[in-house]
Amino acid sequence: MSTSRPSSATETEPQELERTLGLLPALAIGTGTMVGAGIFVFPGLAAGQAGPAAMISFAIGAVIALLVALPTSELATAMPESGGGYYFVSRALGPLAGCMVGIGQWLGLVFASAFYLMGFGHYLSDLFRELGVGLPLSVVGLALGMGVLLTAVSITGTENTGDLQNWIVGSLLAILGGFLGHGGLDALGVFGRQQVPEAFFPYGTLPVFTTAALVFTSYLGFVQIATVAGEIKNPARNLPRSMIGSVLLVGTLYVLTIFIATSLLGSEKLAVLGETAIVNVGRAIAGTFGAAALLGGGLLATLSSANASILSASRSIYALSRDDLVPPQVERINTRYRTPHVALLMAGGPILALILYGRVEVLAEVASLLHLFMYGLICVALLVLRQTAPEGYAPTFRCPGYPVVPVLGALSSFGLVGFMSALSIALGGGILLVTAGWYLYYARTVTIPALPHD
Amino acid sequence: MTDAAARPSSILVDVELPDPAPLDPELIRVLSSLRVVLLGWFAVPEQTSPAQARDQFGDDAQAALDTIAQRFEAVGADVTTRLVFTGDELDTISRISVEENCDAVLVPAPADRVALRRVLVPFRGLHNARRIAPFVADLVQDHTTDVTLLHILEEGETEASSLSDVLEPAAAMMREQGLDADLLTLDARATDDPTDAIVERSAEYDLVVLGETEPSIRTILFGTVPEQIVQRAQVPVLVVRKGGEMEEGGNN
Question: Which of A171, A211, B188, B232 is the most buried (most CB within 10 A)?
């Protein structure tokens, strides 16, 4: 940094950035971030609220996610840069919207990560109970410990865990494949089991929508693929495939999981079992082995989701800092570990505070709300960019069904927020107001650079 | 790339930035007869966006790379530099070697050499020699370096048949490329373990030039022979790349 050449926007000797993630690692990022919540935390809570119709809640989430994944794919192939949703919205809609989405993305991931860690705490506490070990720590204590550990490892860890993430997602899919395959046949009565008789809408239709709003946290991961768009090989091909593919994959898994869980145990029992209800579904299918497999799966899945969210949150902070929307100190990398320790602490610290707060449903809904705000604006960004067609906007993937898809994507994203609890709406809305306040206080003079073009 | 025939063979030299392992001056001198593609890579952990690392370390890394490039230029080499921030340096090295159409890749040795005067060129059949010959000729243009062609006998071959069918034609190929006849030594060996034999032989030499091999059962089970040699040899190894894989790389 000292006396070498001046760095300018137009470098004569370009310093290249290697793209190291292929299609499978990209899919693993998306799937790994999402699957922790939808299968391993929500089934009990969702069935308790909506009954077997929670299947429809998850399907609604999948449709909304898909309506957003298609526009996001177009934007990501036009701007395969790190930063994801923030990058698209700031380029299309300017610094105020960018600031709200970018800070919202960071805090949304912080809420999501706290939620996943609470899920992890429930699983670990279940494991101790299954093993008959007296528990020195509460669920919150376990979640806090893991939060500290994850943050520390993300700052000091130099071993790349990318391969590990692929293995985790692979083994999760194997566990789920066995669970869904065998459980599905069982639920259909192939093995002579009686289904738990139950009305499909035991609580009416409105809870289907409020549940959809609650469980939407299960669909936050696909945009994280866009957050690392700058590191994905052959982005024109791999970005759309991994984003759309991961939404379709997890959406299918979620709906099947709820179908099996409610068929085998009934939603009342699931509701009592709470966050780790799926472990008992595993026990109903394959005894102790099934329970152990799903308990292990839950530990892995919630941990990988939490970890992926911390890393994405740090990348969101960097994207904001590069555009001068937050102070430049936050993007410092320490020379010893080459990790952005300030940004990682800005993710890890608030996560611990939220774990202390500890209300899983509220954490999930605020995470979803902040993401849905971004999703809606991503769709608006697509509409704006298609209309204004600025120089340098040359997507290689075109969103099908334009303009219906982005219009529906925006309306459904904003609309789903309306089904959340008043507390979540107040918290999420308050956070967005604060982000707007931050823009007025700190970043009012910032101009967002134009799209790079030749 | 189109004028490749007119230019000398090229070698990829990769260095880790911003604190590269020291490069032996003697090695730099020997390689200066080639077109040198100097690849500086900066390892970025997955927690860090490569762009973020470039923002902070780009200038330092560039300066470190330029310093090394100047050492090559000072002894007359034609140097191309590339600087890459990467989460996977092996991906980067193989991508750049394809993009820059490099004929060979340097694998440096742990210890320095006093002088580079003796080059060992082990090879398997003639098709193997055909790829290596022009590269070796370009490498030893100073006409003072001894080159030993080492042929490991395969089943059914004798020393006599190796000499007449493989070594002599290969030597002729080298001479055609401009290699001094009196600096060439021919050697045929029977052995159960080519890797052991080559590693053992390499101790008497300053540099090994090795062809990248086609996959074989052994390759699949134990890693490639060049890989094993590279890991065990105490001298620098230049691995001559297989041709005809230009369309590979890049995608996934």
Answer: A211
> Would the pLDDT of B249 be above 60?
no
Residue in B43, B49, B54 closest to A15 by CB: B54
Model pLDDT, residue A161 = 61
What is the chain B residue with the closest CA to A335? B57
For B67, name the nearest residue in chain A, comparing CA atoms only.
A4
- Look at residues A292, A265, A261 and name the one whose alpha carbon lies nearest to residue A127: A292
CATH number of domain containing A206 = 1.20.1740.10
With CA atoms as reference, the chain B residue closest to A308 would be B47
Q: Answer whether A82 sits within 8 Å of B49, measured CB to CB.
A: yes
Which residues 87-126 on chain B approach chain A with CB closer than 8 angstroms?
A: 87-88, 91-92, 95
* pTM > 0.90: yes or no: no
User: According to the model, what pLDDT value does residue B96 have?
Assistant: 92
Q: How far apart are CA B244 and CA A317, in angstroms?
A: 44
pLDDT in tens, B111-169: 666 677 899 999 887 888 888 888 998 888 777 889 999 988 877 788 888 888 889 99
Q: Which domains does chain B have, with CATH numbers?
A: 10-102 (3.40.50.620), 118-240 (3.40.50.620)
Specify the pLDDT at position A427. 97
Residue B50: pLDDT above 60?
A: yes
Closest to A283 measured CA to CA, from A269, A297, A293, A275 = A293
Q: Which residues of A touch B49 (CB under 8 A)?
A: 82, 228, 230-231, 315, 318
Mark the ranges of chain A whose per-residue pLDDT is less than 50.
1-12
Is A338–B48 a contact, with Cβ atoms under 8 angstroms apart? Answer: yes
pLDDT of residue B219: 58
Residue B228, pLDDT score = 78
Locate all alpha helices (DSSP H) within chain B, ordered by sequence: 25-31, 50-74, 89-99, 126-139, 159-162, 168-176, 194-202, 217-222, 225-232
ipTM, interface predicted TM-score of the complex: 0.86
Please say whether the beta carbons of B72 and B32 come within 8 A.
yes
The yes-or-no verdict on residue B216 having pLDDT over 90 is: no
Give kind and range of the element (H or E) at residue B122. strand B118-123
Task: Give bridge partners of residue B36 from the DSSP assignment.
Answer: B11, B79
DSSP character at residue B251: -
**pLDDT band with cut points at 50, 70 and 90 for residue B245:** very low
Q: Is residue A162 part of a domain?
A: yes
Tell me whether residue A180 is in a domain: yes
Which of A7, A23, A234 lies closest to B59 in CB terms? A7
Contacts of B41 in chain A (CB under 8 A): 18
Question: Least CB-CB distance to A233: which of B44, B51, B251?
Answer: B251
In a domain, A235, yes or no: yes
Is B248 touching A (CB cutoff 8 A)?
no
Contact B146, B105 (CB under 8 A): no
Q: What phi and psi, each to the nearest 5 degrees, are found at residue B238?
A: -105, 115
Interface contact flag, A5 B62, Cβ < 8 Å: yes
**Which of A2, A15, A166, A331 to mutate against chain B (most B CBs within 10 Å)?**
A15
Structural domain including A403 reads 32-389+399-442
Q: Could you tell me if residue A279 is inside a domain?
A: yes
Q: How many domains does chain A have?
A: 1
